[in-house]
Amino acid sequence: MTTTPFSTVRDLLRYAVTRFTKAQLAFGHGSDNAYDEAAYLVLRTLDLPLDTLEPFLDARLLPDEIDAVLKVIERRATERVPAAYLTHEAWMHGHRFYVDERVIVPRSFIGELLDDGLQPYVADPEQVGAVLELCTGSGCLAILAASAFPNAEIDAVDLSEKALEVAAINVRDYGLEDRVTLHHGDLYAPLPMFRSTDPGARYDVILTNPPYVNSASMAALPPEYRHEPEMALAGGADGMDIVRRIISEARNWLHDDGALVVEIGNERANVEAAFGGLEMTWLPTSAGEDSVFLIQAWDLPAKV
């Protein structure tokens, strides 16, 4: 056990902020600054409530507690591992999800839009009977969709078997095994064929937060993002490789009044260059109106 000059939570919090700042860490996996990340890691490592810091600031810690926190701080600073991988959890819109290096850390502006059940674009969330999520990763959006659309069956697809192992943990944690079905395969390929051939069985909503990072941006990613699976991030030269495939087939799987919702991060310019002929609505989120777009089924390319 290491002998240190630290004795309180305040000591460790101050040290962590300084250590993270000097290391010039990149944030964006649950927090956007050194203080919030330091507070989260200190509280989580000590098994203290994540929303209650002040009463514990001057609490004196046991030597093994100090040692545990210092090890987490050092790993975050030297290995540049995202905090979510250190704690095996990520929080999104009030929901906790298990995560590890098999999936990208959950983060999606679509989650905000699901708080209102995608209204007004979905007239009545309770009437939604079937939802498809493509590129599900940890399963976070499928789980949020199950809450937003309480009467819907959710199909969630991913090409990565390892990602689906994590998604299965989260589906089980939320007790949604009867409503969320996980499918292993390439986009629409593993889905039951009746979903496309039977007009009454098609989806009301398709959601996706696909790989969309363009090749130039991939080359410039900070080390933190390189801990995440590359296949969940890389979208080709213009970031649109997977998005093109999703859009080209979506009409086959949607009801006539259904909707496709796609998150594309900072790639709006590439979206408009690739799909400028399509009628799309850019949805307002906390990041502005450049990150998520919606296309009504009747505006999608004709069925093939």
Task: Walk me through what this model shows.
The protein is α/β, with parallel strands linked by helices and 304 residues long. The chain has 2 domains: 9-87, Orthogonal Bundle (Helicase, Ruva Protein, domain 3), CATH 1.10.8; 103-299, Rossmann fold (3-Layer(aba) Sandwich), CATH 3.40.50. It is 35% helix and 15% strand. It contains 12 helices and 9 strands. Strands 5-4-3-6-7-9-8 form a 7-stranded mixed β-sheet, with helices on both faces. Helix 1 runs parallel beside helix 3 and helix 2 (34-45) crosses helix 3. The longest helix has 16 residues, at 63-78. The protein is elongated and about 70 Å long. The model has no long low-confidence stretch (mean pLDDT 94).
The gist of it:
With 304 residues, this protein is of the alpha/beta class. It is built from twelve helices and nine strands. It has helices spanning 9-22, 34-45, 63-78, 83-87, 110-114, 140-148, 161-173, 194-197, 215-219, 223-226, 241-250, 268-275, and strands at residues 90-92, 95-97, 130-134, 153-158, 180-184, 203-208, 254-263, 281-282, 292-296.
